[in-house]
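Input/output pair, single chain:
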Amino acid sequence: MYKVFSIGNTLMSDDGIAHYVLQDIKDNVLKLPKQIEVIFGEDDYMFCLYKVLANDTVIIIDGNLSGAKIGSVKKRLINQFQCNKFHNHHKKNLNDLISSKKINQKIFLITIEIQSIDYGSDLTLSIKKKFKKIKRKVYREIKKILYEEDYYA
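Output:
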């Protein structure tokens, strides 16, 4: 089964982008010819990780503030990404959490470059202007993951 989950705080401006994108593309994702579960983790990725089973492939969608072009979307295997920005309430990063659960399956990370993380329940204007394009890119990356998995299986 594929587990697709969004990470980010909708009360912190652009940090909630993954939630809004997954909310908008959820129906299309669930129509894909695969067993898929969509999970809205917000800032509680421990909840998401507890939903992962031994043979699942995990797709995490999150906002990223790295200085890249705002609205750009990148896909990578989680072990290719520095997870320093992912912290839970106990200051463990996502790598530590994955290791502690002994998750061995493929974990993909789809990041959306955002403008800012600040108090506010609304996306920044620059992200709003690019929202439709971002949604299409994220959906395309999810489909690529699903079909690449078939090719390499």
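The beta strands are 2-7, 36-42, 57-64, 73-77, 107-113. Residues 80-91 have pLDDT under 50 and may be disordered.
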